[in-house]
Amino acid sequence: MVKEDESRDRALELFLKIGLDERTAKNTVANNKVTANLTAVIHEASVTDGCEKSIGNLLYSVATKYPANALVHRPTLLEYIVSSKIKTTAQLDAAFSFFSHTGSESFKLHEFEEACGVGVEVSEEDIEHTVSEIFEERASSILEQRYRTNVGELFGHVRKKLPWADQKSVKQIIDKKMLALLGERTAADDEKPAKKKEKPVKVEEKKVAVVAAPQPSEEELNPFKDFPQPEDNFKVHTEIFFSDDRVLRCCNSKEMLNKHLTVTGGKVFTRFPPEPNGYLHIGHAKAMFVSFGLAKERSGCCYLRFDDTNPEAEKKEYIDHIKEIVDWMGWKPFKITYASDYFQELYDLAVELIKRGHAYVDHQTPDEIKEYREKKMNSPWRDRPVAESLKLFEDMRRGLIEEGKATLRMKQDMQSDNYNMYDLIAYRIKLCTLEFETRRASYYWLLHALDLYQPYVWEYSRLNVTNTVMSKRKLNYLVTKKFVDGWDDPRLMTLAGLRRRGVTSTSINAFVRGIGITRSDGSTIRLDRLEYHIREELNKTAPRTMVVLYPLKVVITNLDAGSVMDLEAKKWPDAQTDTSAIYQVPFSKTVYIERSDFRMKDSKDYYGLAPGKTVMLRYAFPIKCTNVILADDKETVVEIHAEYDPSKKTKPKGVLHWVAESSHGVDPLQVEVRLFDKLFLSESPAELGNDWLSDVNPHSKVVVPCAYAVPSLGEAKVGDRFQFERLGYFVVDRDSTSEKLVFNRTVTLRDSYGKGGK
């Protein structure tokens, strides 16, 4: 740790020298990948002794945004930055675009300079003149909207006319023009614009907002647009900087690429490689979408490759589950294979690595390896003869060496600035299994060392969702310690749990498509966003019905005891005369409403039933409360008496769902309803450390054993989905029996994502 801290301190000092502010520098040091990139950029640019802040900021952008397929041209760009030939973010962005399209191919310098505006000088006067012209053209609009004017649009117009203008100067001049034209900002400028008054509508679903679906982004329409074609895989994947100043630029030769394309027929080949040591969760849905989705979009092939390299944690149950879930998610593997299928081939490659002098058998303990890595020291066995390593490696394979007494390590670069090049372990003796530690640099180093084809590796961030945990270790703990009811508990973000909750695979894929294949580290997506996509689909596919969770008896006093009317209810809001979109509901003398839909005291903002008040029973009649029967405690409401209006002349605002007896004295259909909520109270329970279990929501599962349902629900089958009017979306659970149906709540009707929680 001491060496690691010293390395970070040196990096921090270097970053401060190039003018980064302290906060940015510290955040950079916390990210190993950006630290390695920025350190390499500073050395390439020969500014290890420092530079102007404006140049340093551009170098930081190069370290974080430069296209990986054109690393061979990065030194050229750095020369232009250090010499101030490229000095604005607009020019730099244009350079990124130019090199992204150029890749590792050669280019003409004058074309690059023209594309990046090299030599073009935009003065303050030029910007002032252009901004003045734009303000004159739009003066009336700006005066009308004042400080609500879309300044971004003004920026866009300036950028169109002066693409190489300094954006900071543009902003300052626009701000100055706004102040000169409008004067100081007033309180009225900060008020939200008044909305036009609209005719009030009936409140039928507790003021649920109806939100228009957002327009799909370009990435949603084509999330795979940035992936290269197979024939383009000759560009540099990564650069490896060795401590002896050598630089390895990993890429396929044209000969190697042509050989690969001949074998594959030019098709895209991908793989989804889950470990069979647990149930798949929603993070795996993203991995499946990328691997299977890319292959499908490009008419290619995707392997389902089980990474069965740890027999201690693997079960056939998990393998069967993964196969089933992949199919349920809508993906069809080209082939199903196992890493163990290739153990002999991998062993042979390891032998070849030793023969080429790129690997050795080591006897250091894990603590010694850690210490030597921190000190950047070579293992005492690093330079042992090849023949000796070959014999020892064979002894390892045959089980002649005790577990933990030997490992096969790759001979990389123990003095590198990249700790992923510190002679990583390729094999260890552990139940005769393969254990290969790898990162991007070491992975391509290995392929290069063995003269193997170098596939394109796309690194994207793992998917994290709020109010849950994704760690298999934590999920396993929740299951084994009975915090939840198994791997498919509807409160878990396992795909089996989501399926049992009633979530569809198509809505999960829509969610993954919507968040995009981002490379940003540690992205956490709000649960609301997943729920938005769930509602979007269920709103179109789940028929409406009525269920009362906590029934309160209502006796219709002006209806005969034996009278039962069969009324028509709609499965879909816009249903007309189509009989398939209509179901029958009985209306009789005894009706049940939600207990929460009655109050003893009425108020203006309350749309439920109260003494002397009238409400509409959905698809039925208006009823007016005429009497209330209380329990002995004089507080608990036992029964309500009401009169119905058969003429429907009364037009109350409140509309309630209800269930009635289908015949006199016979209770309605009884069902069990399970109301599921967030499993954890906080958005990031994993950040609570050892206290994460204290954050479990004690009300994440509420069972309602005796809810009342309309008779037509009695025909529902396991997996059928419904919208219970005013309550949410529900699915028939597999615990249902012929005597009693069980429903799981999938999601409520509330939609905070669509209302701004994006």
From TrEMBL:
Enzyme Commission identifier(s): 6.1.1.18
The UniProt record lists the keyword ATP-binding: yes
InterPro entries from the UniProt entry: aa-tRNA-synth_I_CS, Gln-tRNA-synth_Ib_RNA-bd_2, Gln-tRNA-synth_Ib_RNA-bd_N, Gln-tRNA-synth_Ib_RNA-bd_N_1, Gln-tRNA-synth_Ib_RNA-bd_N_2, Gln/Glu-tRNA_Ligase, Glu/Gln-tRNA-synth_Ib_cat-dom, Glu/Gln-tRNA-synth_Ib_codon-bd
Catalyzed reaction equations: tRNA(Gln) + L-glutamine + ATP = L-glutaminyl-tRNA(Gln) + AMP + diphosphate
A Pfam entry, by short name: tRNA-synt_1c_C2
PROSITE patterns, A to Z: AA_TRNA_LIGASE_I
Residue stretches making up the Glutamyl/glutaminyl-tRNA synthetase class Ib anti-codon binding domain: 542-645
Keyword entries, A-Z: Aminoacyl-tRNA synthetase, ATP-binding, Ligase, Nucleotide-binding, Protein biosynthesis
Sequence ranges assigned to domain Glutamyl/glutaminyl-tRNA synthetase class Ib catalytic in this UniProt record: 267-430, 431-539
Record-annotated Glutaminyl-tRNA synthetase class Ib non-specific RNA-binding domain positions: 11-167, 170-244
Name listed for the protein in its UniProt record: glutamine--tRNA ligase
Higher taxonomy: Eukaryota, Viridiplantae, Streptophyta, Embryophyta, Tracheophyta
